[in-house]
Specification:
The chain is of the alpha/beta class and 205 residues long. The chain has 8 helices and 5 strands. Strands 2-3-1-4-5 form a 5-stranded parallel beta sheet, sandwiched between helices. The protein starts with a strand and ends with a helix. The structure holds adenosine-5'-triphosphate (ATP) and magnesium ion. Magnesium ion binds next to helix 1.
C-alpha cells in the first residue's frame, strides 16, 4: 500500500484554515480518497484535555509551559493518530501543527526559534508535512472574522498577531518547497481553487 500524505493548514486566527480544510476534505472524499481530518491542539482523548487548558485556562501560563503543553499534545497526536494514518495510506489534513508553535511561541512570544525547532523535532520524531499551506491575512480582517468571542490565544493583541503573521511569512521563506502562502483576503471559492492547485502539484511531484 502507498504511504499517505501529510498536509498542514496554518495561519493566524480567523484566516480561514478550518473553512478551507473542510472544503478540501469534502472534495477529496468526493473523488474517492481516504482522508483523516484532524487538528492541533486537541484532536481527541488526552489532547482534548490539553486543548481545554491551552485555550481556556485563565490563570498565569508561562511561555515555556505553554510551549511544552502544545508539544505534549503534538507528540501524542503524531504517535497515536497521524503516523498510523500515514501508514494506512490516508491523506492527513491537519489544522495547525509545528509551524503554529514557531509562529506563536517563537515569533509571537519571543522564544528562541532554534530551540522550538529542536523541540518540535523531538515531539514529531522528525516527521515533516509533505505540504504546508499558510493562509495569509491582515489582522483587521481576521479579527472581524473571529468576532467578539475570543479565546485566550485570540485575546493577545494586535502587535502579537502582526509578529505571528510575519513569523509565518519568514517560515515560508526559509522552506519554500514545503510551505506555500495563499492570500486569504480573497473569496472562499477562489482560495479553495488555489488549494486544489497546490494539491494537484503535490500529486504531480
Ligand atoms: N475567504 C473568506 N472570506 C470571508 N469570510 C471567510 C473566509 N474564510 C473564512 N471566512 C469566515 O471567517 C470566519 C473564520 O474562519 P475559520 O474558522 O475558517 O478560520 P480559522 O483560521 O479556522 O480560525 P481559528 O484559527 O480561530 O480556528 C468564519 O466565520 C468563516 O466563515
Ligand atoms: Mg479553525
Amino acid at each position: 500500500m502507498n504511504k499517505g500524505l501529510f498536509i498542514t493548514f496554518e495561519g493566524a486566527d480567523g484566516c480561514g484554515k478550518t473553512t478551507q480544510i473542510e472544503l478540501l476534505d469534502k472534495h477529496l472524499k468526493s473523488i474517492g480518497k481516504q482522508t483523516l481530518l484532524t487538528r492541533e491542539p486537541g484532536a481527541k482523548g488526552l489532547g482534548i484535555k490539553l486543548r481545554e487548558i491551552l485555550l481556556n485556562y485563565d490563570g498565569e501560563v508561562s511561555p515555556n509551559c505553554e510551549s511544552f503543553l502544545f508539544l505534549a499534545d503534538r507528540a501524542q497526536h503524531v504517535d497515536c493518530i497521524i503516523k498510523p494514518a500515514i501508514e494506512e495510506g490516508k491523506i492527513i489534513l491537519c489544522d495547525r501543527h509545528t509551524d503554529s508553535t514557531v509562529a506563536y511561541q517563537g515569533y509571537g512570544r519571543g522564544l528562541d526559534i532554534e530551540r522550538i525547532n529542536y523541540l518540535n523535532n523531538i515531539a514529531t520524531s522528525g516527521l515533516k508535512p509533505d505540504l504546508t499551506i499558510v493562509f495569509d491575512i491582515d489582522i483587521e480582517t481576521s479579527m472581524k472574522r473571529v468576532g467578539k468571542e475570543k479565546d485566550r490565544m485570540e485575546s493577545a493583541g494586535t502587535e502579537f498577531f502582526n509578529r505571528v503573521r510575519e513569523g509565518y511569512l519568514e517560515i515560508s521563506k526559509k522552506e519554500p518547497e514545503r510551505v506555500k502562502v495563499i492570500n486569504s483576503a480573497d473569496s472562499i471559492e477562489n482560495i479553495h481553487k488555489q488549494v486544489l492547485e497546490l494539491i494537484d502539484k503535490l500529486w504531480q511531484a
